[in-house]
Amino acid sequence: MKLITAVIRPEKLPNVKEALFKIGVTGITLSRVSGHGGEREVLEHYRGTQVRLEFHEKVKLEIAVSEAFLERTVKAISSAARSGEVGDGKIFVQSLEQVIRIRTGENDADALTPVGTPKEGY
Amino acid sequence: MKLITAVIRPEKLPNVKEALFKIGVTGITLSRVSGHGGEREVLEHYRGTQVRLEFHEKVKLEIAVSEAFLERTVKAISSAARSGEVGDGKIFVQSLEQVIRIRTGENDADALTPVGTPKEGY
Amino acid sequence: MKLITAVIRPEKLPNVKEALFKIGVTGITLSRVSGHGGEREVLEHYRGTQVRLEFHEKVKLEIAVSEAFLERTVKAISSAARSGEVGDGKIFVQSLEQVIRIRTGENDADALTPVGTPKEGY
Amino acid sequence: MKALKLALPLGLLTLMGGALAQTAAAAPVIDKGDTAFMLIASALVLLMTPGLAFFYGGLARAKTVLNTMMMSFIAIGVVALLWPLIGYSIAFGDLKNAFFGGFDKVALSGLTAGSIWNNGGVIQTTIPTFVFMIFQMMFAVITPALISGALIDRMKFGSYILFIGLWSVLIYAPLAHWVWSANGWLFARGVLDFAGGTVVHIAAGISALVAVLILGPRSSGSQRAAVPHNIPFVLLGAALLWFGWFGFNAGSELAADGVAGLAFINTAIAPGVAMLAWLLCEVVRGQRPSAVGAATGAVVGLVAITPACAYVGPVASMAIGAIAAVCSFLVVQLKHRLAADDALDVFACHGVGGIVGAILTGVFADSRVSGLTAAKGLIDGNPAQIVTQLVGVGVTILFCAVGTATLMFIIKAVMGVRVSAQEESMGLDVSSHAEDGYNNGDFGYATNGKSGSIDSPVILSANAND
Amino acid sequence: MKALKLALPLGLLTLMGGALAQTAAAAPVIDKGDTAFMLIASALVLLMTPGLAFFYGGLARAKTVLNTMMMSFIAIGVVALLWPLIGYSIAFGDLKNAFFGGFDKVALSGLTAGSIWNNGGVIQTTIPTFVFMIFQMMFAVITPALISGALIDRMKFGSYILFIGLWSVLIYAPLAHWVWSANGWLFARGVLDFAGGTVVHIAAGISALVAVLILGPRSSGSQRAAVPHNIPFVLLGAALLWFGWFGFNAGSELAADGVAGLAFINTAIAPGVAMLAWLLCEVVRGQRPSAVGAATGAVVGLVAITPACAYVGPVASMAIGAIAAVCSFLVVQLKHRLAADDALDVFACHGVGGIVGAILTGVFADSRVSGLTAAKGLIDGNPAQIVTQLVGVGVTILFCAVGTATLMFIIKAVMGVRVSAQEESMGLDVSSHAEDGYNNGDFGYATNGKSGSIDSPVILSANAND
Amino acid sequence: MKALKLALPLGLLTLMGGALAQTAAAAPVIDKGDTAFMLIASALVLLMTPGLAFFYGGLARAKTVLNTMMMSFIAIGVVALLWPLIGYSIAFGDLKNAFFGGFDKVALSGLTAGSIWNNGGVIQTTIPTFVFMIFQMMFAVITPALISGALIDRMKFGSYILFIGLWSVLIYAPLAHWVWSANGWLFARGVLDFAGGTVVHIAAGISALVAVLILGPRSSGSQRAAVPHNIPFVLLGAALLWFGWFGFNAGSELAADGVAGLAFINTAIAPGVAMLAWLLCEVVRGQRPSAVGAATGAVVGLVAITPACAYVGPVASMAIGAIAAVCSFLVVQLKHRLAADDALDVFACHGVGGIVGAILTGVFADSRVSGLTAAKGLIDGNPAQIVTQLVGVGVTILFCAVGTATLMFIIKAVMGVRVSAQEESMGLDVSSHAEDGYNNGDFGYATNGKSGSIDSPVILSANAND
Ligand SMILES: Nc1ncnc2c1ncn2[C@@H]1O[C@H](COP(=O)(O)OP(=O)(O)O)[C@@H](O)[C@H]1O
Ligand SMILES: Nc1ncnc2c1ncn2[C@@H]1O[C@H](COP(=O)(O)OP(=O)(O)O)[C@@H](O)[C@H]1O
Ligand SMILES: Nc1ncnc2c1ncn2[C@@H]1O[C@H](COP(=O)(O)OP(=O)(O)O)[C@@H](O)[C@H]1O
């Protein structure tokens, strides 16, 4: 199994979500992060003080998938999140040794199958 | 060493915390995340607009442990976080190549031993 | 490639940032986390109720680097984030199988090179 | 409005403060100055209820902030409907008996813009009856809202609405008649309550305590996490309460005169000193002086000075503020020993503060400062007043306890009073109001009310659907 | 200010409410009570604009909260400059014609602290002219600010400032003359608008609708994410609006008397009932009673009672509140069918509420309660008033629609009205004001204005630099 | 209160504005209109201090928001204790000398609800003495609170309390005597300061500057991160300040008349124009017009118009607002060159705004508008007034600088003035108040005060314990 971590623009989240749902990926964990990369700094002014915002708001998605789903998931995210401007973000792939579904104690690929879909893990 | 990442319900956090402390795990990093899985959407209404909350509030725990502690930690989390309803969350286990304690520069298992407890790493 | 995850004190962030920029690391993803380790609890009081803050505010940095950059990055963080007091935090290193730059679809080390710097990946 | 009414038992119809010595013979006229004052005072008292919403809302958790605030706001709606229709008539209608005012003023029948309030001909004021009615309505709004602080985090919103509606008509209105109407029996008994220590604060504090006993405690989870989510809101609420309280206390004189001035200065002094006293208590106990403590102390001082404000001098006012703060502080420390889970300390603040204030009114009332000869306490040579005050306190406690228990039991039987455990753990904002107090907007979808339309999330595969 | 003016068509110069029966012979004097009331009422009306800023700001997203709030705040600045310089003169200057007031009062020339307002000698009040001027200014401030709710999330801030400046001088001021000046043509026509149902609310609602048609809808992204970011702020805003509205409505009597009292009580009752009605609508539709709904309902009730407040009795006031809430609720449900992207429902709340209120004034005005014999509606035997009200509504709609469209087209041509798509997606707080509403401070650097100084981030290597 | 006092040097006891021409022979009576106005004005001024708490609190960082707000709130407590006990007597006690008022009014001895304020028999007003006392108290509350903005993020809370307590008694009260009491020496000198430009704003601004020089700058870490954490709170604070300022300025007339009306309109106009001027400065410097800028500009305009408000016409008022905003803006840009770390620009806003306003009062005071013949400035043919104003400014600066320095050095010697570096880096909310401004509640544990009880976290193994 793999853990896919994607850092994307917040405004692209709806697109990415739809793209993931279309290919059948519904297990997602999201968080709000700040990213620094090639984007220009934003300047703010408060009274006599200048403030540089070197970090931009991003959304991080963490998705555990079975090997079989890896490529299509990466592709889905990557095309749905692209604007073509600097700052679109990155996708990281790591290997995952074990997954446990807390509710049932199920292990590994079984744990990745959503409720009521006794299909092959994705 | 392993990195355990658990996504749980916020209301189960106190239980999980106690369970971890009981088995001697005290190094924990927490964050607030939003999870999407098998749970039902929540509908909200604001004037004429319907809002679907497709994501539910969750808490993510990241815990680095030595091999020896892996199983009991996973078990502790898994039983303390269980409600039996859809949405209880997942536990992910990844291998960890290196751990450095910033304060001392110590490496690996040493870095996982809490202050004042020169016992075997956990 | 490696994924470096560092949990540091918020007040040390400016130092760490400078240290990273100096060695040429500009791709960073930050988030706000709460950490529990060896630090003392903070007590708060609200009317008749005592509240224990067992968790302390920390900042988590995630940085993907090529092998070549690993050591100097870890060193930079570790020395810039050190105060010598309990609670300075930890650095975790994991292996990273794949990195994709969303904007271009580039893969692996290429994806780690910032805009306009066609030098060796770091 | 006690300054006016006190005149009565002594058979005096002349009023305090200046130009008001009309006899019954002279046609009563509206005084523009008094009317201006009472109009603005009424607006100030209205603002107290949103102030309370912030005071309570800031103390609540983020996931129940809206429910907590709505419990105050809805009181404006409910009482704005019921008070003109029936509550006012029960409280200030015809003077046939000592226990309630009757039905002649139902739906404000007969009142016009030209009516001047005279409490059935017994007391002549110089303000329009409409203005008196609305000033009183603002009191009737905030009193049940005060109770809500005890009930947050687990009460059904519908049951709460029913409860405060019935409470305001069946408990508040009669009590207001007893204490403030020219023929009310507690009024006749000589109980001193200038601006509502008994009718408002003891009534709310006791009712809160009784109501939570029937409602039951919060789940241990929500109790554990019960840390104020936004303390600046608590301070905002305290500030708006204090600001409005000037209308509440000084306005109770129904005229812009020196007695109103005395009521006003005490409404500034007592809570200021109570704030200091509360912080000192914290320091003495080894804690830090806290913002929640400052806000709480000020509110307790405001509560305690309410019955006394026009009767006592400024130094006595300092004493009342300090004593009430210490008493209330001690009760708050002990609250975890109580069976009742009074979430935001309504009893400890309003109940205790009100009782202390009512009794100390009997101690410190001083006609040499106020000029109100009927209002003498211990220090002015009338120790018997303390007994009278105790009677007032006792009757109020009894009536409110029995009345509230009855209402709560009936509502519990008819429709239930608690949300389900699951709704409680979700937080009442989402479960009772389908809203979140704070949104960052990125993770949710607005679907324009058209489910399945082109704007809504496209969900194609079956297994993605739940 | 209608109670005063209504006297005119009937040739009566005597005023309502008591001691004001001076004939033209007696030297007019300032009444301290009335002046006290109007000074405070003016302060209350000022507070409505920040209240609106919170009402709108809370409903907006976190990344446009400042821009949304600034659209209200800047209106205070713009109108505080333009109203004394020119707007006041256009609205209340000499009485040469029925369509605008002239230029004799430009820069308030000739006014002194001793001037008493008498609308060119026709109507004698007992308040200083300065006080009348500032009370009116507060109305001129909030009216364009109301429009802003429709325009948020995409309008250029500079264009907005130009728009409201021109709007307040060229549209608001003449309209105020028509409806409220002693020789205004709608006033002469007998249109009843006590406190600004037409001039303020219909004008703002219609202008908002027309302006967004020209401005265009928000990007689908910002529309989708348009969930209120801070509902306690919405409640705070509603509370401050309500509080200020007492000054707005009761103050429009320009005197502290029984008519002001009637206006005041209706300003409490109608919105209270409207709040309940809105929540009931939500429940009937199968939703939960929401905090945003309660706030919206109360505001709609306030809007609807504005033209009627001093003319109708309390039960009629309940009816007006309830009917307006239901109408407005229905329009809000349908809003997604409209082409116009009226972001915060300015039309549905102020337009619809204002129209319903104006018409119902013609139905419920009842001189038996108010004592204002010139203000009779259907239930007081004067069905023709409804037609008169419809004329007022129609003229206002027409004038504002044409005027707003003209202004917007000109500004669009001259300097554009929309920010770029990229600025819109960043959020206007950062792109138009270079500020974030909320900061946690850890991730940003304050550089003391000295770039490159020792305090600023040390950036050494070239490839780290952008 | 200058309109009243100015009458004196000219030997006139007749007061402005209408019906008040009683000679000493006629028994003084309370005017209901004036009293109504002053009661509400006092409430408005009280609200300014919480307004300030939000203005400052929003500009502070999230981890020091409570400490910042408490520095304002505690001023209410401290001064509510000290002003009635001693401060009032020093400022407005018997008239034996020109430098302080004496001790005859200690603990308000001798005052009753019937007392009418006449400043020792020299000036006859028509309001109760209690009302005058409390109106003045509200000024004494906010002035030291203003200073706190400079001191945030590092001052010991206990030392701060001691400082403002001493400051209010030893610096504020005498200064108030000099400028506002009938025999104060600056008053006799003819210094024009209607509502407190010198006594309140210059005093606070200078004291802030001197105090921070002794306190020392914040750590570079907190200075760096010093970005406003909640700008809507800044706007809320500015709005409440502005709202309250109407009471502050117009109330200083102590009567509801045309002069109060003039003071009121200038209190709306000058800050409105100052807001625009500040935003224009930002744009001229190539920045964006910001919300913090709008709020700051408005406050600076309010400060600058304070001494002048009842003396100048509306166009002069615009000029004062604009000039003060530009001056203050420039000083803010230069602040990083100063050694003093005046965290929230108290000197740049209140000091500079106050000085500019005081001097411009000497330029623009115009008796042809105000009717106050003793208040003539340059444009009214009295250039000498500018010199008089400069004397007033100079004396205030000198007295406050020396006085504040003395107090701070003593307190520093006795108990220290700064928290430890570690406490500063934790943030003063946790370290001085053991509270967090905002909590989400999930990560902390409430333990009901019973440590070790069944509700507290079960911690079993030793190595888990710290
Ligand atoms: N090496 C990295 N490690 C971790 N996060 C990174 C790294 N490089 C980029 N990111 C994340 O991706 C985001 C976008 O990267 P950026 O370099 O700005 O744009 P692009 O990927 O289009 O070149 C950054 O804001 C940051 O959150
Ligand atoms: N494949 C996945 N990748 C990442 N996070 C997941 C995945 N599946 C579930 N989660 C996280 O776990 C939470 C609970 O999962 P859910 O499917 O709702 O319940 P259950 O595990 O009980 O079937 C989700 O809200 C999400 O945060
Ligand atoms: N085993 C661990 N797994 C995950 N995070 C850890 C672990 N140990 C420590 N941390 C993180 O590092 C922070 C600092 O650790 P702590 O033990 O307090 O100090 P130190 O590293 O100086 O001994 C903690 O607050 C926590 O966020």
Summarize the structure.
Chain A is an alpha+beta fold. Chain A has helices spanning 13-22, 67-80, 108-112; strands at residues 2-8, 28-36, 42-46, 49-53, 56-65, 90-95, 98-101.
Shape estimate of chain D: globular
Domain count of chain D: the total is: 2
Q: Which structural class matches the secondary elements of chain A?
A: alpha+beta
CATH superfamily of the largest domain in chain D: Ammonium transporter AmtB like domains
Task: Please explain how this structure is put together.
- The complex is a heterohexamer, with 3 copies of chain A (122 residues) and 3 copies of chain D (466 residues).
- Chain A is 24% helix and 38% strand.
- Chain A has 122 residues and is an alpha+beta fold.
- Chain A has one domain (2-112): Alpha-Beta Plaits.
- Chain A has a 4-stranded antiparallel β-sheet. A two-stranded antiparallel sheet of chain A has the order 3-4.
- In chain A, helix 1 runs antiparallel to helix 2 (67-80).
- In chain A, 59% of the residues are buried.
- Chain D is globular and about 70 Å long.
- Chain D has 17 helices and 1 strand.
- Chain D has 466 residues and is an all-alpha fold.
- In chain D, helix 2 (32-59) runs parallel beside helix 4 (129-151), helix 2 (32-59) runs antiparallel to helix 9 and helix 11 packs across helix 13.
- Chain D folds into 2 domains: 30-114 and 124-415, Ammonium transporter fold; 434-466, no CATH class.
- Residues 1-25 and 449-466 of chain D have low confidence and may be disordered.
- The longest helix of chain D is centred in the last third of the chain and has 32 residues, at 384-415.
- Chains D and E meet through helix 2, helix 3, helix 4 and strand 1 of D and helix 2, helix 8, helix 9, helix 10 and helix 11 of E.
- Strand 6 of chain A pairs antiparallel with strand 7 of chain C, so a sheet runs across the interface.
- One adenosine-5'-diphosphate (ADP) sits between chains B (7, 35-39, 56, 58, 86-90) and A (27-29, 62-64, 101, 103, 112, 114-115).
